Amino acid sequence: MSAAAGLTGLTLAGALAGLRARQFSAEEITRAHIAAIEAARPLNAFVLETPDKALEMARGSDARIAAGEAGPLEGAPIGIKDLFCTRGVRSTAASRILGEFIPPYESTVTANLWRDGAVMLGKLNMDEFAMGSSNETSAFGPVINPWRSAGSNRALTPGGSSGGSAAAVAADLVLAATATDTGGSIRQPAAFTGTVGIKPTYGRCSRWGVVAFASSLDQAGPIARTVEDAAILLKSMSGHDRKDSTSLPIEVPDFPAFVGRSPKGLRIGVPKEYRAPGMPAEIETLWAQGIAWLKDAGCEVVEVSLPHTRYALPAYYIIAPAEASSNLARYDGMRYGLRVAAPGLNGVYEETRAAGFGAEVQRRILIGAYVLSAGYYDAYYLKAQKVRRRIADDFATAFEGVDALLTPTAPSAAFGLGDNTADPVAMYLNDIFTVTVNLAGLPAISVPGGLDAGGLPLGLQLIGRALDEGTLFTLAGALEQAAAFRARPARWW
Amino acid sequence: MTIDVATVRKVARLAHIRQEEDRLAPLAAELSGILQWIEQLNEVDTDGVEPMASAVALALPMREDVVTEGGDAAMILANAPASRGGFFVVPKVVE
To answer: Which chain A residue shows the shortest CA-CA distance from B26?
Structure first.
């Protein structure tokens, strides 16, 4: 085992401290990660490795560190979900329809990361257009979870849609990763891989240059190994951007400063409607454990009611496909991406989109086109928007009496590849605890809380008031400390 | 609401996605299953509720109506499936 191997197991905070103290160079830690990525190809976490670019960026970081000009993330090698456009580097949204698309521009979130000195190791696998909960809709094939159930070789999903991001962080291939969350796509993969993931308040991170899925719900955020690492990365990713009209024109708080504070005196709500029928006993137990940990830390825990919870997923499956069918109309084979030759203009459109979109994306576009079509708009889309308001109002009422909510992140641990592909609705139910906050625009974080009987990680979710990520970082830090989650996947790849 | 094969054919045409004839019936069944599950929304009383279109209660920002960028034809065409003389080449639009 070379000394370099130890460099891939560091936290982001630890790596940044080591880089600043010149214990190792940005090039050394980058080379260690490049080697780890090459050895981990069976995980299929990356759709594009960019080792040459990574080394070039790392050398730039080393020069800036030497010159005393280091940025907050200087020299830290990270991974980027392939939904973020990166200038000069192929960006596909894991879809055939984007083909070999090479953006001539950089997304604002990734531009912020490079401004702060981060190093890009490559582009991470995901569900096609971020539509999926298991990574199985990717045109590049599914990511394999580095975790396996005890005594089994069965391939498990890392969750989705940010499955590549979560798997790469869990397997020590990157120090941290960017991800996006439209209905749970940061938090559910974080829960399935024993990592930390936060979806910030809608408008915190710019959507400019992020391939659009459902614009009123999409939000970027980090997946990392610790709460502090997530806070460090989110601070760099956030900030007002004039190129996104829904970007919030407000200052970014110093998120890492909230980690490690005492949560004493905070009031925590436990929503009774999240006690889903058929929830595994292990999830119930973990939830009760989370409540006990927060009480021990000095929080007051009360039951609250979010009466419209069960309507969140059906409302989401009108709103998200409607927005997607509109957003994805741009993929017509004319200006970029795939074009399939066929007779007539409409023929080219229809053949290109049939060949370029996978089955789940087609299904959602068709649902979206149907609910927006003449005669059905009021019955479906308008109704869903009204239910969305009811759900947001539920949260507003609950937050009159509490500072944050505690729930499980997902209704199960990681499941096997192929287990939920036969029935779309069964797959959609994975997001039952996460989707509500996307509709309301609220921030929520998933923290590893423990292991199930098979040794697979389970996550706890904290939901906060709009713009109150700081309280989430404080509470998540307290849970992380109490849980003392140290389990790591045994390396089989 | 169940969706029949004719409706799937129509929606697929609206969405510009060709579907094989033998895919229409399975798709109709899948989409009907999803829509039937969605219909539980009818249980919610939404009388007088203002529809929520955005999670951000912000007025859209305004700016001066001036040109901010441009002159990037080569960059814009770089990913085009076909281009010639600074233009996109597309199938014949008007017969």
So the answer is: A363
Asked whether the domain spanning A267-309+383-483 has the same topology as the one spanning A3-258, the reply is yes
Distance from C-alpha of A159 to C-alpha of A152, rounded to nearest angstrom:
18
The kind and range of the H/E element at A85 are: none
CA distance B32 to B30: 5
Tell me how crowded residue A116 is: count the other CB atoms within 10 A of its CB. 18
A416: left (phi over 0), alpha (psi -120 to 50) or beta: beta
Active site residue A2: no
| Separation CA A376–CA A476 (nearest Å) | 43
Query: In whole angstroms, what is the distance from residue A279 CA to residue A260 CA?
Result: 32
CA-closest candidate to residue A328, choices A211, A217, A245: A211
Distances from the Cα of A155 to the Cα of A42, A141, A143, A358, angstroms = 11, 13, 9, 22
Residue type at A203? G
Does B7 lie at the interface with A, CB-CB under 8 angstroms?
A: yes
Whether the complex's predicted ipTM is more than 0.90 is answered with yes
Q: A46: which strand partners?
A: A124
What pLDDT, in 10s, does the model give residues A276-334? Answer: 778 889 999 999 999 999 999 999 999 999 999 999 999 999 999 999 999 999 999 99
Q: Tell me whether residue A185 is one of the annotated catalytic residues.
A: yes
Structure token digits, residue A354: 């049939």
A363 Cα distance to chain centroid:
22
Long-range contacts: B4-10, Cβ < 8 Å, 24+? B4/B28, B7/A370, B8/A366
Q: Give strand pairing partners of A270.
A: A303
CATH classification of A3-258, choosing from 2.40.128.50, 3.90.1300.10, 1.10.340.30, 3.20.20.80? 3.90.1300.10
Supply the CATH classification number for the domain A267-309+383-483: 3.90.1300.10
Which residue in chain B has the smallest CA separation from A97? B81
Q: Which of A161, A162, A325, A412 is catalytic?
A: A161
Angle between helices A227-237 and A108-115 (to 10 degrees): 110
Structure tokens at A213: 């899925």
Please answer whether residues A58 and A27 qualify as being in contact, where contact means their C-beta atoms are separated by less than 8 angstroms. Answer: yes
Q: Sort residue A484 into left (φ over 0), alpha (ψ -120 to 50) or beta.
A: left
**In terms of Cα–Cα distance, which of A14, A16, A447, A482 is closest to A198?**
A447
pLDDT, averaged in runs of 10, over chain B (95 residues):
92 96 95 94 96 86 90 94 95 84
Single pTM value for the model: 0.97
Across the interface, do B14 and A373 touch by the CB < 8 Å criterion?
yes
Residue ranges per domain, chain A? 3-258, 267-309+383-483, 314-378
Please give the backbone phi and psi of residue A248, each rounded to the nearest 5 degrees, phi first.
-80, 125
How far apart CA A159 and CA A114 sit, in angstroms, is: 27
Phi, psi of A492 (to 5 degrees): -120, -10
Whether omega for the bond prior to residue A161 falls within 30 degrees of 0, making it cis, is yes
Widest pairwise Cα distance in chain B? 58
- Chain centre to alpha carbon of residue A15: 22
Residue B81 is nearest to which of A318, A339, A392, comparing CB atoms? A339
